[in-house]
Amino acid sequence: MAKVEILMPSMGESIFECTVLKWLVDEGDHVEIDDMILEVATDKIDTEIGSSHKGVITKFFVKDGDVALIGKPICEIDTDIDTVVTKFTEKIKIVEDEYVEQIAKSFEEVVASPSVVASSNTKFYSPLVLNIAKKENISQAELDNIKGTGFEKRVTKDDILNYLNSKKEPKTFFSEAPVISHTGEDQIVEMDRMRKMISQRMLESKAISPHVTSFMETDMTAVVNWRLRIKDSFTKEFKENLTFTPILIEAVAHAIKKYPGINIQVSGDNIIYKKDINIGMAVALPNGNLIVPVIHQADKYSLSQLAVKVNDLAKRARNNQLKPEELSGGTYTITNIGTFGNLSGTPIIMQPQVAIMAFGVIRKLPSVIETADGDLIGIRQKMVISHSFDHRVVDGSLGGMFLKEVSDFFENFDTKRVLN
Q1: What is d(CA 355, CA 332) in angstroms, rounded to the nearest whole number?
Q2: Which of 256, 297, 253 is nearest to 394 (CA)?
Q3: Mean pLDDT throughout 78-97?
Q4: How far is it, in rounded angstroms, from Cα 232 to Cα 353?
Q5: pLDDT tens readout for residues 329-364
Q6: Going by DSSP bridges, is the β-strand pair 264-267/270-273 parallel, antiparallel, or unpaired?
Q7: Among 28, 100, 143, 280, which one has the highest count of C-beta atoms within 10 angstroms of its own C-beta?
Q8: What does the pLDDT look like over 197-249, one tens digit per residue?
Q9: CB burial class (10 A; 0-12, 13-18, 19+) of residue 99?
Q10: Which residues pair with residue 267 across a beta bridge?
């Protein structure tokens, strides 16, 4: 017998464990390479783990709810071809027997409940559909109104299950946590799993890195006017909205190239200068939590490519469709708190990075404008940028110059720029 242990794969830097949500297969199941076998959760994402081998799952080493360590065995698989064929044949036979038994049971229950079979029209319903309707207390009137997608528009099992799912109320952020009322007014809501992990990561970051935050007000008038002029044609050409976020990412990537001392990590007494510029962008989820997908080699993208990438990652982040590799490897992070109308903030560094930048809301303000004829008062589009950095390895001069470089990028933005 050729038995192999399947290991928990890497889920990204700084992630050493994950929580087992549920197994997607049973012991004795046959799987192919990359078949999804396990659903797990980290502080960043819920995701599915694929099988690294082809064969029959013979033993689980972790159960639902367990904490699984990265690189440790999660299950055992038999890759012997004879065993695979035998187990697979046995599995098919079991499924066939269960199916025949279920059909027989459905007929018995339908016959015993003639009231369910009666219909005000001539629609045909299979015993399985009628059995589901009986168990879920679906009235005949409801059943008659379900749109069928089967042969001759008959209602299938999927049709009735989709109907049942549509009746369920969507979960909210608080629906997953128990609520305990103490006085009739106060409530205690237990943190969900992701919030607990985020809380722990933030505490660890503040304990590891002595945070220093610098602020700068920058003039975004050129950027705002250029975007306003080009956004409609951009949407028409690229079928995407042009937000400020890709422009912010481009500015940061530009500044990192000039000041690579920001694009580093600390490992013991060593400083690691990262070759790639991988910029993470904080995305707010519907439940209020944050997730940070990463744009790898962000400096290699054109602005139009960045816009498409940003929109794609943000959309899939909110729908929990990101892949583990899209959440790992970040070397610098930005957060656009201006989306929420915030003027500025003091963001917490994403370990093991050494800096993070927050962009505030862009608003019209009276400002002194220097001209050849003297100073004038005018209305300008202003934004406050805040830059938090790890004072162990980033001094105030480097942190300040980097922030100034980002600001200069916006203030000197080419308003005649053409995208391609």
Answers
A1: 6
A2: 256
A3: 62
A4: 36
A5: 999 999 999 999 999 999 999 999 999 999 999 999
A6: antiparallel
A7: 280
A8: 888 889 999 999 999 999 999 999 999 999 999 999 999 999 999 999 999 99
A9: exposed
A10: 270
Burial readout 13-42 (b: 16 or more C-beta within 10 A, e: otherwise): bbbeebbbbebebeeebbbeeeeebbbbbb
Which CATH number applies to 3-81? 2.40.50.100
Q: Which two structure tokens, joined as six digits, stand for 72?
A: 């440790």
Pair of tokens at residue 420: 């391609």
* Residues paired with residue 20 on neighbouring β-strands, in sequence order: 40
Please, what's the largest Cα pairwise distance for the chain? 96
Return the domain boundaries, the chain.
Answer: 3-81, 209-411
Establish whether the linkage from the previous residue to 260 is cis, with ω within 30° of 0. no
- At what angle are helices 127-135 and 157-167 packed, to 10 degrees? 20
Report the distance separating Cα 288 and Cα 198, nearest Å.
12
pLDDT tens-digit readout, 98-155? 555 555 555 555 445 444 444 445 677 776 788 788 888 888 888 888 888 876 678 8
CATH class for domain 209-411? alpha beta
Strands 355-359 and 332-335: parallel
Cα gap 157→150, rounded to integer Å: 9
Enumerate the active-site residues: 391, 395
- Residue 163's pLDDT is 86
